Amino acid sequence: MAPPPPTPSSSSRGSGVRSASRRGRVRRRCQWLLYWVPVVFICCILCWSYYAYVVQLCLLTMKNIGEKVVCLIAYHLFFAMFLWSYWKTIFTLPVHPSKEFLLTYADKELLEREPRGEVHQEVLKRAAKELPIYTRTMSGAIRYCDRCQLIKPDRCHHCSACDKCILKMDHHCPWVNNCVGFSNYKFFLLFLAYSLLYCLFIAATDLQYFIKFWTNGLSDTQAKFHIMFLFFAAAMFSISLSSLFGYHCWLVSKNKSTLEAFRAPIFRHGTDKNGFSLGFSKNLRQVFGDEKIYWLLPVFTSQGDGCSFPTCLVTQDLEQASTPSGLISSNKNENHHFPAKPLRDSQSHLLTDTHSWTETNASIEKNKLGMSNPALTMENET
Ligand SMILES: [Zn+2]
Ligand SMILES: [Zn+2]
User: Fold this and answer.
1) Could you tell me the distance, in angstroms and rounded to a whole number, from the CA of residue 163 to the centre of ligand 2?
2) Domain ranges across the chain
């Protein structure tokens, strides 16, 4: 039997839905274009700086051949490293939590059915039993993302711009139109370093011609204005980049993300702003890796898997201390091994470590901060 023709009310409802979805698509496309504006702006500045430095300064203004050759070679080296690290920061996709952190369909249904409270926490605690989760919400509950429906690994946060949970999220950077996190933090640092070097190099080599501009030592050509603006732009960017780069060097030395610098991570025993710090040298290796020859190249060498991190809090955490050192418990998932506990620096090679994490005394868990209060069991983090 043929279906009945649509009634006027249902067809108008249908067209209303269609136009709303079209409006949504247009809005998303406009947003997408808008997000690329800062990147296009940087690319335009970069193209102009190339023309101003290479053509106007080196080829048309510099008279000394030796100076010309040295400046051109050094400039292209900085330019290439800057572009390479910038490209990698923009186009390296942020990593999301692995499937082990996703709730099962049954657990999701249970969470949706039940009002928030003790039952929710019981479900999450059971799901997190085999996972290397050591940080908690402010109320002491398991960190859970309602939006992605997963248990958040340590140092993972939900990015509202990407609408996804990002491993070891640092911040969402509009200048690279990407989330800076576990997968591209090294690239981001190198991008800051090489862009700073690029600007400092331009400012230093342009300085004498900039002085000549003010003392009328330059002939009246178009190059004059390029040389002047090139110096101003390079000096201005150098100042802002050096403060940003200095801040991120400090973060790396303390093994903190920008988000953690603003809000210290909360462990089972409480807040600890240096909870992930392993000492300067090992903190550096967490981001740059063990092999120093790759430190200055934008290739991925960071340690770990982004889901679990070594900490120095083993003795301070009662629950962790109750696990005998070196105890191995095999994980149900054979493809993904988690460390037996937050590792001390001597055990920090997470990817090569085959120890598995284990939950221990449940009675200790109940005594932890806020866990007995069902009203404080969940927290939305952004
Ligand atoms: Zn999320
Ligand atoms: Zn993001």
Assistant:
1) 7
2) 51-92+184-253, 99-183+264-376
